[in-house]
Write a structure and sequence with these properties.
Blueprint (H helix, E strand, L loop, with lengths): L1 H32 L8 H9 L4 E4 L8 H9 L3 E5 L3 H13 L7 E4 L5 H12 L5 E4 L1 H4 L2 H8 L3 E6 L19 H8 L4 E5 L4 H10 L6 E4 L7 E7 L3 H11 L4 E5 L3 H13 L4 E4 L5 H12 L5 E4 L12 E6 L6 H8 L9 E7 L1 H11 L4 H19 L4 H8 L13 H4 L4 E3 L1 H14 L5 H9 L4 H6 L15 H13 L3 E3 L7 E3 L1 H8 L5 E3 L25 H18 L3 H4 L2 H10 L4 H4 L7 H22 L4 H7 L4 H13 L4 H7 L4 H13 L7 H7 L2 H14 L5 H8 L5 H16 L1
Parallel strand pairs: 1-6, 1-7, 2-4, 2-5, 3-4, 5-6, 8-13, 9-11, 9-12, 10-11, 12-13
Antiparallel strand pairs: 14-17, 15-16
Helix pairs in contact: 2-3, 14-15, 15-21, 18-21, 18-22, 19-21, 23-25, 23-27, 31-35, 33-35
Length: 746
């Protein structure tokens, strides 16, 4: 019995300790970073690091990976050593950390960009105990004098960022990452935290094995980025499409990725000629030009960066609104990593890629001459990319499956295949025909030769092999070359056909293909939509969603001020305040530094450091426009109906999201609708069309409107619900009824 009591006491004590630690962590999160709650797995990861255990973190871009080592570094004794692949990325993070602290020595980096005096200053700050985070590139970490210096200091833990660079199966393999573990052993043991935004199960295993952390606690967040819209377009008139897209999204930040440096230069020139503020970025440029172009993008002097994949890992810009792939990347991991640079703040993010199978063939050609093992890996990675680009399945489902995550929804509603399903055709008979023809002609030919045989093209090569007399010659003339190309690629994707690595591009049927001929199963191929960029208005703007700020005028003014403050401090604008913070300011209207501390993403440090000018601007704006702020309403008139009324009318005039209005007045959605109905029924005219367009399908709204206009004998909600039937929700009917009363009655 005593044992049971003891166990209960121990459990209670443990729960109390955990509660206490959680409370402290939330307090420090608010104090240092200005956030009131953790995202996803962040708190669990931080607790694991604080407990001194090895930690492996898989978290998508925008999930808040850096906080997982930044917060524990500030709380633990000693210095956290952060190993990161790019100098620009380190500088970015160090600048960001310094905005959260009064002590400028809180974070430093040691790399080849520093002169002797700067290195001395860094070491002096570290030895004086001022520094909590010290960033290294893996190459710098291996230098003897750095190893000797690190042996003298207490290391709280090692953080290996972008850990996928360790794996040959990763999209960005770097041999120097393989040397991290031996160097750590030489410096001295401390817990490890490895972090990456992209890793298939195979890459994850490779990382853990190489770092000697197979027993680490693994924290895997969902790879799903619901705010990103994925679209693949056929590569027909790509320059025209890109210019049109950018013009439709004027003033928004975007990145365009090209595979070659030459294409980067050409496209940048074309964009500039079309009045688009763009800069180029690739490894062939001199370092100062590259850095200047990156700064122009970060400081919002230009809208677009055209780059090779060298660009992106070095930036932490949260408000990139679109990522365009001029060419398909070499792997799905690369694609996911690069698209992940859009919408890191949780706002809109449009991921558009242009696909042509010819580009894939070019990439395959580049692999020739590389070791066979490397070619094999490259071929398999490319196959996954082709499968993704040509699939008619939900893009999100395909991507998440690749990373070992199941997505159970049939329709994500935020990719091209879900919004505009492409026509699919049954190709079971044609696939069997192609495999039989391939078996007969043998393994000395590429896919285009097989297609020409099926189409009945009497080329000199086909004549020389006598295949113009084959029974398969023109057997597939009912379809065109694009259709047969899709069929052959489907055979490759399904693993029914092998592609010879040593003799580039030659294809042959394998055992799985023979089994398919014997027992064919249903297979569909996707046909492209008819595509004419001149005729078809590309719906580039629609998926980008609504702007998000409540008071658009104030939001624009705050962005301008942020740019000025950033310029004064020599920092990128988002380091001052991120977009979600400005949006919250344009809802809450903080006019004191105390109120500013309650804005999302603004802690005590940031409020004191940058808040003064913003508070001043907001106060002047509120007075000039005679705005009744949410805080004023709550303080002066809790439950004051007339106060609610004024606030709701003003908010709807500013086209504010209903959920934001409800939150500001501490109402649920039903209570808000009741308030609006009261306002409208007393004769005030409101225009809520903007919200109805976001909230519901246009046809449904028209049906309900027509019912009230032509069929309804009264405005009774119960009767309307009964008459309209189960396809229409109560909220939808109430919203359209409000619109109807305003337009017809007020």
């Amino acid at each position: 019995m005593n044992f049971v009591i003891l166990e209960t006491v121990q459990t209670t004590m443990k729960q109390e300790q955990e509660k206490e630690q959680s409370s402290l962590l939330h307090e420090k999160l608010k104090e240092y970073f200005g956030f009131s709650s953790f995202k996803g797995n962040q708190e669990a990861v931080i607790r694991n690091v604080l407990a001194g255990r090895d930690t492996f973190v898989l978290m998508p871009t925008g999930g808040g990976k850096s906080l997982c080592y930044q917060l524990p570094a500030l709380l633990m004794e000693g210095v956290a050593i952060v190993i990161s692949p790019l100098i620009a990325l380190m500088k970015n993070q160090v600048d960001s950390m310094r905005t959260f602290s009064a002590e400028s020595g809180i974070a430093h980096f040691l790399n080849s960009s520093l002169n002797k005096t700067a290195v001395q200053q860094v070491r002096s700050d570290v030895l004086a105990g001022k520094t909590k985070l010290l960033y290294f590139a893996p190459e710098s970490l291996t230098k003897e004098d750095n190893v000797a210096f690190l042996r003298k200091i207490k290391i709280s833990f090692y953080a290996i960022d972008e850990a996928h660079c360790i794996s040959e199966w990763g999209h960005d393999f770097r041999p120097e990452y393989r040397r991290i573990r031996p160097i750590i052993n030489e410096i001295g043991p401390a817990p490890l935290i490895a972090l990456t935004a992209t890793a298939t199960p195979k890459v994850q295993m490779d990382i853990q094995k190489n770092l000697g952390m197979t027993d680490a606690s693994v924290f895997k967040s969902s790879f799903n980025r619901p705010n990103l819209y994925y679209e693949i377009r056929p590569k027909h008139n790509v320059d025209h499409d890109i210019i049109r897209f950018i013009k439709q999204n004027e003033g928004k930040s975007g990145i365009i990725y090209c595979l070659s440096r030459k294409k980067v230069e050409e496209l940048t020139e074309l964009l500039l000629a079309n009045g688009i503020k763009a800069r180029a970025y690739h490894a062939g440029m001199d370092a100062s030009t590259r850095a200047a172009n990156q700064d122009d993008f970060l400081m919002e002097r230009v809208d677009v960066i055209v780059a090779t994949i060298a660009f992106g890992m070095g930036i932490d810009k949260p408000d990139v609104r679109y990522v365009i792939h001029y060419d398909m990347p070499k792997s799905l991991e690369g694609y996911y990593q690069e698209t992940g640079r859009a919408g890191r703040d949780g706002g809109e993010g449009y991921c558009l890629a242009f696909y042509s199978y010819k580009d894939i063939q070019k990439l395959e050609k580049f692999m020739q001459g590389k070791p066979i093992a490397e070619q094999e890996i490259g071929k398999l990675l490319l196959l996954e990319t082709v499968s993704y680009a040509e699939s008619s399945m939900c893009r999100r489902k395909t991507l998440l499956h690749y990373f070992g995550e199941e997505y159970t929804e049939e329709n994500c509603g935020n990719c091209d295949n879900c919004r505009n399903p492409k026509p699919k055709v049954d190709a079971k008979a044609e696939l069997k025909m192609a495999l039989e023809a391939l078996r007969d002609i043998g393994d000395k030919f590429k896919s285009d030769y097989l297609i020409n045989v099926l189409l009945g093209k009497n080329t000199a090569l086909i004549k020389s092999y006598g295949h113009n007399k084959s029974k398969w010659f023109s057997a597939g003339a009912d379809h065109d070359a694009r259709f047969w190309g899709a069929v052959v690629r489907q055979a490759l994707i399904l693993g029914l056909v092998d592609k010879n690595i040593e003799n580039y591009g030659l294809i042959s049927i394998n055992r799985k293909g023979e089994n398919y001929i014997a027992m064919p199963f249903p297979v569909t191929v996707t046909l492209d939509h008819d595509y004419d960029a001149e005729e078809k208005e590309i719906e580039a703007v629609a998926p980008m969603g609504k702007g998000g700020a409540a008071d658009e005028e104030l939001f624009a003014m705050l962005k301008d001020l942020r740019k000025k403050v950033a310029k004064k401090h020599g920092l990128p604008p988002f380091v001052i305040f991120q977009d979600p913070s400005l949006e919250d300011m344009s809802v809450q209207y903080p006019i004191t530094l105390e109120e500013m501390q309650n804005i999302t993403g603004v802690g005590v440090g940031k409020a004191r450091k940058f808040g003064e000018e913003f508070v001043k601007l907001i106060k002047a704006y509120v007075e000039e426009k005679e705005i009744i702020r949410p805080q004023d309403m709550i303080v002066k008139s809790v439950g004051n109906k007339s106060g609610n009324k004024i606030f709701i009318i003003q908010s709807i005039d500013r086209k504010m999201d209903f959920e934001d209005i409800a939150r500001a007045k501490d109402l649920d959605f039903d209570e808000l609708l009741t308030e609006i109905e009261g306002i409208v029924n007393s004769g005030t005219k409101l225009d809520i069309s903007y919200y109805i367009r976001e909230f519901m399908d246009e046809d449904k709204a028209d049906d309900i409107y027509l019912y009230f206009k032509e069929d309804a004998e009264s405005d009774s909600l119960d009767v309307a619900i009964k008459e309209l039937g189960p396809d229409y929700t109560e909220e939808e009917i109430r919203l359209v009824r409000i619109k109807f009363i305003c337009e017809q009655g007020n």
